[in-house]
Specification:
Length: 156
């Protein structure tokens, strides 16, 4: 997802974090935050990783990368008042991963690994597909809400 325009960086950051943790119930950790200042603009790179246990066997892992280019402080008129906000280009990419046997219970012996393969391939493939579809829906939903937030913020 890409957006170029006016937005509040701190407001958008909080919105994204709250959306993932409160709406979807992910535990989110920030793996990377770097800023590079060039003149009056900043370039910011942020990497998040979120986890959510679905069952005793499955969990979701999401990776979200933010790349903010040319972030500048600007002053805009809103409802007759001057306010400080930001302007720049935001690129967000998100990757969802379904992890099975996340505790490694079925990796302790060759026989258990074999049974895990049979279980996933022949017994629960439709369940896996449903869980994967829900993860894709979460990722698409997050990106859609982030875009909607930025579009609304830019039009105010």
């Amino acid at each position: 997802m890409k957006y170029d325009g006016i937005f509040s960086f701190s407001g958008f950051y909080k919105f994204c974090y709250d959306y993932l943790t409160e709406e979807f119930g992910f535990y989110v950790a920030e793996l990377k935050y770097s800023e590079k200042i060039t003149g009056d603009a900043k370039e910011i790179k942020i990497e998040w990783e979120g986890e959510k246990k679905i069952t005793d066997y499955f969990k979701y892992v999401v990776k979200v990368d933010f790349n903010i280019i040319g972030l500048k402080n600007v002053e805009v008129q809103r409802e007759g008042k001057k306010i400080q906000t930001n302007k720049g280009l935001i690129e967000i990419s998100m990757k969802g991963i379904l992890v099975s046997d996340y505790e490694g219970k079925y990796n302790t012996s060759p026989a258990l690994r074999f049974f895990r393969g049979v279980y996933e391939k022949w017994i629960i493939p439709s369940t896996i597909e449903q869980i994967e579809d829900k993860l894709v829906s979460h990722c698409d939903g997050f990106l859609g809400e982030a875009k909607a937030y930025l579009d609304l913020e830019g039009k105010r």
